[in-house]
Design brief:
The protein is of the alpha/beta class. The protein has 3 domains: 11-79, Winged helix-like DNA-binding domain superfamily/Winged helix DNA-binding domain (Arc Repressor Mutant, subunit A); 81-191 and 358-372, ATPase, nucleotide binding domain (Nucleotidyltransferase, domain 5, 2-Layer Sandwich), CATH 3.30.420.40; 199-352, ATPase, nucleotide binding domain (Nucleotidyltransferase, domain 5), CATH 3.30.420.40. 38% of the residues lie in helices and 21% in strands. It is built from 13 helices and 15 strands. A hairpin with a 4-residue loop joins strand 5 and strand 6. Helix 6 packs across helix 13 and helix 10 packs across helix 12 (330-338). The two termini are 27 Å apart. It holds the Pfam family ROK. Transcriptional repressor of xylose-utilizing enzymes. InterPro entries: ATPase_NBD, ROK, ROK_cs, WH-like_DNA-bd_sf, WH_DNA-bd_sf. Belongs to the ROK (NagC/XylR) family. This is MarR family transcriptional regulator.
């Protein structure tokens, strides 16, 4: 188990560790060639990593063509420490205690709850107690995802609940000694895709729920802008002087193309009191024409937002994280059909592989990047 708690690793140490993570089984001699460090430095650093429990010796490799001693191979130990990750919505809380590679030890989910500035600390404290009651292993970080603008751990704007009225980071730091991060949920979803899902250097992940947010990752770094407001694509104007939005604009994209708006529209069209993704899917499976038309319209409106993203950020991949689109992958083809600009000719549009867990994976990724001091971290399984 890790000896030095919450240690920020030195550059050469992180360089060696990244080489071991990226190459799975690798010898000290190969690490020296890969990193450009001399063999004595590699030997000293790997000894420290072995002592800290972050790597282990996994076996004997093949000798070189010149003969000599067979090398001992090294491998990353993802079970060296644990991370807490939470996703807090307007009326739900999801949490996990996981190893460094994202493997969940325990998960919890609370639905139909009241999340507010008055309840959030108690909810998190109780959830942490539930997740950690059976472990005494080292926890090296915790991340809390909120649905709103966050800048340097400060919640700046939450349009659908009042978490922007408290210093959540400070209140949690008063109770726990491990590093704590507060971040926008769409940003974390994007980081989760980067670290645990995709072999891409640049990507944008669209999280579509009650609003529409875009997380932007370039080389493992979240591009959040000076005030933490980059990627708020849901508040780009689709219809000038359109519907009023809590952000102060009129005609914002998310007032027309979010999942919540789709549900409301279908409830009105079909004369239903309530619609969610399950009901939408039942309507789709019954070949309901009005539902098909509403989904086609949603894909068209979303394609406008995606076109704007492509012209600004030029990513390799755009990931769509929405229960509607996961259940109806044909909608991706509709979006692609509407992307007629030359700027869209090379981009890949795809559904999230992590789905509803992407934000939790992103929280794990952020803590792991900090603990290992590796930004271009890739922990996905091919």
């Amino acid at each position: 188990m890790v000896v030095n708690k919450y240690k920020i690793r030195e550059q050469n140490e992180s360089l060696i560790l990244k080489g071991i993570i990226d190459h799975k089984n690798i010898s000290r001699a190969e690490l020296a060639v890969l990193t450009g460090l001399n063999k004595a430095s590699v030997s000293s650093i790997t000894k420290t990593l072995l002592d800290d429990g972050l790597i282990f010796e996994t076996g004997i490799g093949n000798a070189s063509t010149l003969g000599g001693r067979k090398p001992i191979l090294l491998q990353f130990n993802p079970k060296a420490a644990l991370i807490l990750s939470f996703d807090i919505g307007v009326d739900y809380l999801k949490g996990t205690l996981a190893y460094l590679d994202g493997e969940a030890v325990v998960t919890i989910q609370k639905k139909r709850i009241v999340v507010s500035s008055e309840t959030v600390i108690a909810l998190l404290q109780q959830s942490i107690k539930e997740l950690t009651v059976k472990t005494d292993s080292l926890i090296v970080g915790m991340c809390v995802a909120v649905h709103g603008v966050v800048n340097q751990n400060e919640i700046v704007f939450t349009p659908y609940y009042d978490l922007d009225t408290i210093d959540l980071h400070q209140k949690l730091s008063d109770h726990f000694e491990f590093p704590i991060f507060i971040e926008n949920e769409a940003n974390l979803a994007a980081l989760g895709e980067y670290v645990f899902s995709l072999d891409s250097k640049t990507l944008v992940s669209l999280s579509i729920h009650s609003g529409i947010g875009a997380g932007i990752v370039d080389g493992g770094i979240l591009r959040k802008g000076h005030f933490g407001e980059a990627g708020e694509i849901g508040h780009s104007i689709l219809y000038p002087n359109g519907k009023k939005c809590p952000c102060g604009n009129r005609g914002c994209l998310e007032q027309y193309a979010s999942n919540s708006v789709l549900y409301e529209n279908l409830a009105s069209i079909k004369g239903l009191e309530y619609v969610d993704s399950t009901i939408v899917q039942k309507l789709v499976e019954s070949d309901d024409e009005k539902t098909a038309a509403a989904l086609a319209d949603n894909a068209f409106l979303l394609s406008i937002g995606i076109n704007n993203i492509l012209t600004v950020y030029d990513p390799e991949v755009v990931v769509i994280n929405s229960s509607i689109y996961r259940n109806n992958p044909a909608l991706l083809s509709m979006i692609t059909t509407h992307l007629t600009s030359r700027f869209a000719r090379n981009v890949q549009i795809q559904n999230s592989k992590l789905g509803s867990q992407a934000t939790l994976f992103g929280g794990i990724a952020l803590c792991c990047q900090n603990f290992l001091n590796i930004k271009e971290l890739k922990l996905y399984s091919n």
